[in-house]
Description:
Strand content: 15-25%
Shape: elongated
Oligomer: single chain
Amino acid sequence: xxxxxxxxxxxxxxxxxxxxxxxxxxxxxxxxxxxxxxxxxxxxxxxxxxxxxxxxxxxxxxxxxxxxxxxxxxxxxxxxxxxxxxxxxxxxxxxxxxxxxxxxxxxxxxxxxxxxxxxxxxxxxxxxxxxxxxxxxxxxxxxxxxxxxxxxxxxxxxxxxxxxxxxxxxxxxxxxxxxxxxxxxxxxxxxxxxxxxxxxxxxxxxxxxxxxxxxxxxxxxxxxxxxxxxxxxxxxxxxxxxxxxxxxxxxxxxxxxxxxxxxxxxxxxxxxxxxxxxxxxxxxxxxxxxxxxxxxxxxxxxxxxxxxxxxxxxxxxxxxxxxxxxxxxxxxxxxxxxxxxxxxxxxxxxxxxxxxxxxxxxxxxxxxxxxxxxxxxxxxxxxxxxxxxxxxxxxxxxxxxxxxxxxxxxxxxxxxxxxxxxxxxxxxxxxxxxxxxxxxxxxxxxxxxxxxxxxxxxxxxxxxxxxxxxxxxxxxxxxxxxxxxxxxxxxxxxxxxxxxxxxxxxxxxxxxxxxxxxxxxxxxxxxxxxxxxxxxxxxxxxxxxxxxxxxxxxxxxxxxxxxxxxxxxxxxxxxxxxxxxxxxxxxxxxxxxxxxxxxxxxxxxxxxxxxxxxxxxxxxxxxxxxxxxxxxxxxxxxxxxxxxxxxxxxxxxxxxxxxxxxxxxxxxxxxxxxxxxxxxxxxxxxxxxxxxxxxxxxxxxxxxxxxxxxxxxxxxxxxxxxxxxxxxxxxxxxxxxxxxxxxxxxxxxxxxxxxxxxxxxxxxxxxxxxxxxxxxxxxxx
Length: 781
């Protein structure tokens, strides 16, 4: 297999192997550094708070900072690239985690509440969590002092985290005290992050903070999927019964990171209201800044990336405490933290600066496709690779169906994208990448040429080929007026053995890594119709064919792709001929579902109402996007769940924290009785994909009928657009479609009850073997 691919790539891309050698020297460690940089950028792009506020260009963040790493992916450049990225991100809390020893508290907790007068005006109360092992008299001491003093230092430091005692310290002392210091309800800090119900199309035309609505005021699901800001509240404090003893008093609290999280947040909120001073000894815990995602990277580097931020009342970001002092060994009353608290209380109270509320809109911008006269730069090529890889990593509901480890796919493609310095090489790298997800939706399109750039595989030989059994046959010779003599040498039904002396089986193996398909049915449909005879316009190929007179060779030239499709459209063997609704033998009705419109259903139903059996030909892709559900409503006798969709609900780069949302597809019966209580047969084949498969599933659900045909393409769930630099784009299936019993449509296709295989004679004569089988079954029952 590897030898075949090498031959193929050399034949197709004469400059590819030389360019590839330029990066073949990349070591595994160097590739992994580049891959890790792409993963870090993906987390920042989708989850860092600055990504969704419209204040940073996430693409530029990657493009600018990866340049030194591309030039020399050594350990130093990797570290520097990360530092530069985080510097441009503008978040000092995100970045490389230094391997420093974590400071330990030297604070010596006492087993009893400790009270002292610091100065004539200041009273000191030490209430560590250890005091809650026994009876605690802190409230009594505080109440006694309130009558004599105006200024209070409340020391809540602990020597270690103790969940049970820390919670008692909070519930029994801190919470009641804070409630007495407020005059109205106080909202505690809110954690704000992004959520995604699937991924939004990257070609969406607008910046927005709401979903688009159509003229009727309903959401246009074509632009799905939903996204926004996710706020998680920590709760609120309500005012306790007014206590005049607290009027006019000033408090300064001393805490460290070993206090209970509720204590920390409550006192931060109180300081935000300008109702106390706050002194912290040692570092602030991460949860004060939000939530973080930790990553282990190459070269033993560890980083943390903020994935949520903390908002205070009024929608403003929180402030630091009044004083933040390092840990010390001093546990006396002259310790720096106590002196700092004393200074704050004896000085003028400094109110927090009033800030404007943070925006609450998640701004999603159209992904630029970076038009380029030539091949995009290495930075842009990697941007496309990283963008696609991260989109699939976080948002594909079918990642589990990818045969390769997804990390390995990234590592394997980095050298290919770096080597892709010509249009051919870049195009083939994109084809390989998009095909790697094994999703029939992931068709690669270039705005400059359609399925391929101009001059690169933009032509086809003027023949149609079909796989029947294990052999490939020429099933149509197209009417190319410029090659009539050569084409006359080929008889329809001849077996195609090789092209340019390469056996067709070998060609299929060589193309397999580059053809987008969910299953073999999808691959065969794409390859034998579009890619087997593909090549540059006007390039010549020698066909080796076996006909009635033995094996012979015929030379043909490739014609423009558009001309090829136009000529194939003229090959009409009566499979799609109108009328699309008719009465067949023995009062059996026939309806070609994907060629009709919803507005025609009343008249078509009236036409078929006296038929006991109806054949629903659901082959192909619908002209009317709602025809499946609308027709199903005419057939349904009761409200029914015909399928369900599974949407990735993404709230964190930690995959284990994400989950799926299930939405049932429900059909409500239409009042028209003409199509109800009939016997139904559905026809399907490899031409059914996406909504074409969804229609089959929906109609199977309401008819409980028999499905006749062949495996469908197995690519369902709305196609989500992914852009690539150089004006390319592709897609992936954005949600999973399932039968009510949990059977997936993706990869498997729709359920087929009676399989009908192709035969060469049926193809050549235009015999519709699937329809005939359905008629046979309908007549015999």
